[in-house]
Amino acid sequence: MNASPPVETHWISRSAFQIVIILLALTQGLLGLALYHHVTFWVVVPLVLILSHLMHGAAVGLHEATHGQLRQNRTFNEFDGILLGVFSFMSFSLYRAAHQTHHAYFATERDEELWPFTNTKSSRWVRILAAVSELTLGLITTPLLFLRAFLRKGSPIRAKRIRRRIWIELWLMVMVWSLIAIAVFYLDIGRYFLWMYFVPAFIAANLQTWRKYIEHVGLTGSTVNSATRNVVADTWMGRLVSFTLLHEPYHGVHHLHVSLPHAELPHHAEKLQPKHPDEHPPFPSYSHAVIHMLKSLRNPRVGAQWHASTPAS
Questions:
Q1: Which residue, of 79, 96, 146, 291, has the fewest CB within 10 Å?
Q2: Closest-CA residue to 139 (of 71, 67, 200)
Q3: pLDDT tens digits, residue range 24-36?
Q4: Is the pTM of the predicted complex or chain greater than 0.85?
């Protein structure tokens, strides 16, 4: 859809990603010092949790890069996207190609990002198993979800140039992680790797999945706002969370105006107000939204196509 006229935003809001990365680096530095000096477990754990949230924010940067909005310079945008993808076990070009189906065929059976919840032929237990595995093992299952879109018969990713680039990025990821594994082994820094990368990355991947589910799973409306949960925080803490997630909680605005920079999304919050009976008003916090989403996990579905078919059992 066409973007709304540009809105003047504060430079801090526009710099959300850079601020997240700076805070991430500082937190990792503090965590490294804590591990080096064998500081108490009760200091390490809060730092790991903070780092997990900041890694989640950095992962949202990958999403921004797919829309060409992470950096104004296209080359830098591509570089950052590939780099973020490597450390998320994701090919940037694969994520971009699959994510395009999420916008082009939003909440329909051709939406690769929300499979199998959009597929009316998938059984309830397959969808429940997919939800449980993705919500608890997101670091593994999310990359596999995108690889499925790439490798399956009838893949929507057909352009030879894009497929070749995806293969190159996948091999790059294998080489980078092989070098990291060798370095961790020979430098004997497994403890640092565990606490400074693996544990927070594992948590961050699950947070990413929970956010995706909060945004869409369980909603079977035919409009953007009836198939999207939005969070418009009413507290300073909630607004801080939104800022560090690059304003992703205003998700419906992003779907309505895909070319809007993330800093402008809050300026269009009025577009999230219900206009149809099956639309929900924005939730005041993620805790309210997650409670609403959890009810749907007994039979997780997405999209209006479920109303035109008999649910699989």
A1: 291
A2: 200
A3: 999 999 999 999 9
A4: yes
What tokens does 223 get? 């409009």
C-alpha distance from residue 262 to each of 60, 64, 73, 227, 313 (Å):
10, 8, 16, 20, 39
Instruction: Tell me what pLDDT residue 178 has.
Output: 98
Region at 217 (left for phi over 0; alpha for psi -120 to 50; beta for the rest): beta
Quote the CA–CA distance of 239 and 266 in Å, as a whole number.
10
Q: Rounded CA gap, 284 and 267, in Å? A: 16
Peptide bond between residue 300 and the one before it cis (omega within 30 degrees of 0): no
Residue-range domain boundaries for the chain: 11-308
pLDDT on residue 11? 83
- In angstroms, what is the C-alpha Rg of the chain? 20
Q: Nearest-CA neighbor of 113 among 101, 125, 124?
A: 101
**Exposure on the CB side of residue 119, measured as CA atoms within 13 A:** 14
Is residue 159 classed as helix, strand or coil in its secondary structure? coil
Enter the tokens of residue 299: 């039979």
Q: What confidence tier does 10 reach under pLDDT thresholds 50, 70, 90?
A: confident
Helix 236-244, helix 41-66: angle, nearest 10:
60
